[in-house]
Amino acid sequence: MGVFLQLLINTLLVSVTNFTVWFAVTFWVYLETRSVFATGVISGIFLVMTALTGIWFGSLVDHYRKKTVMQLSAATSLILYAAALLLYRMTPAAEFRDPTSARLWLLVVLLMFGVIAGNVRTIALPTLVTVLIEEPRRDRANGLVGTASGVSFLVTSVISGLLVALGGMLWVLVLALAVLAAALLALAPLRLPGNATEPAAAGTGRAVDLRGTVRVIREVPGLPALIAFSAFNNLLGGIFMALLDAYGLSLVSVQAWGLLWGVLSTGFIVGGLLIARTGLGKNPVWLLLMVNMVLWTVTLLFPLRSSTVWLAVGLYIYMLVVPYAEAAEQTILQKVVPYERQGRVFGFAQSVEQAASPLTAFLISPIAQFVFIPYMTDGAGARLIGDWFGTGADRGLALVFVLTGMIGIFATTVALRSRPTAG
């Protein structure tokens, strides 16, 4: 447990760095260009790269020493952020206000690739839970992982908004380089005990064994349905990623939005601590489905009024229950998947679950910009429901969220009736 906690803290530092860059570049691009489409493309880049790299990252985790993979992940992010800082300093500020600027998008791509490199750790850490923590306590360890994610969101939300307001992306990148360098130095002397020091799949042949991974997944009753259900939820989640910042920034300033996310992230921390204290119960699959029912109900309700209070309360509930969904899925996979294939299965699940989200993120931004926003500003929607729903750009985005929540509730109801059996 002591080694696990050290790994968790080190991963927390790197997560804070990567989340800060991700949040900050989204805030900054929107404030520079005032383009919802641009923020949607940023989300799409992240989700596309997450989907494309998950299987490969999982193979790296299985076939190489996990500590080495984690170090290379941080080093790669460090190099990409350094290149981004150089480009940022060499580019005239006026060029970043043009949403079609090649240098703007080169900067975005460098930053997002640096963030994506950190995803190796999100695959490696749950496999280390398997080998370092006994099975009866793994759900609680997964709860601590959720708490760490909440802490990273808390710190990230506060500092990213403030740093962007103070100096654009300059201080964000300076901080990122400093923290990543510190994390690399701290991880170097750490020694992992026993079989955690060796590759899980040493001597098993091809590094990327997609066919064998799919076979393992198909052999577990209910596991393909579980992954498919999570993929569908992430399809809807892509809408959140593409539009939520634009919606929030239409209601409050960037500083207030960052501080609000800092408060909201305490819900993630509380949820993770509750799991660490009580566990997930005897049926994590049922719990996962009930959590999703809560998530989509919240998504339906909070946009019904153009209110910062409604937004804050809804998102706090959302953040409170998300750790239960993540911990439940991790606990199920740790239990039913052989250790030597866990990296690839976690990576495969990440890729499949994210595969639909890029399509949503890319499509929903122009649809929101050119269909829903005009519809609720001076179109038929404003005349039809504007009296009670409100009118304007933010109400167009709100209507997208309401429809998303309705679809999510319907899908979760269908899944509850089918009752997958994995885990």
UniProtKB/TrEMBL annotation:
It is found in: Cell membrane. Residues 1-423 form the Major facilitator superfamily (MFS) profile domain. It is a multi-pass membrane protein. The chain crosses the membrane at residues 7-30, 36-57, 69-90, 102-120, 141-163, 169-188, 225-244, 256-276, 285-302, 308-325, 359-377, 397-416. The keyword Membrane applies. Keywords: Cell membrane, Membrane, Transmembrane, Transmembrane helix. It comes from the Bacteria. PANTHER family: INTEGRAL MEMBRANE EFFLUX PROTEIN-RELATED (PTHR23513), MAJOR FACILITATOR SUPERFAMILY ASSOCIATED DOMAIN-CONTAINING PROTEIN (PTHR23513:SF6). This is Multidrug resistance protein. It comes from Paractinoplanes deccanensis.
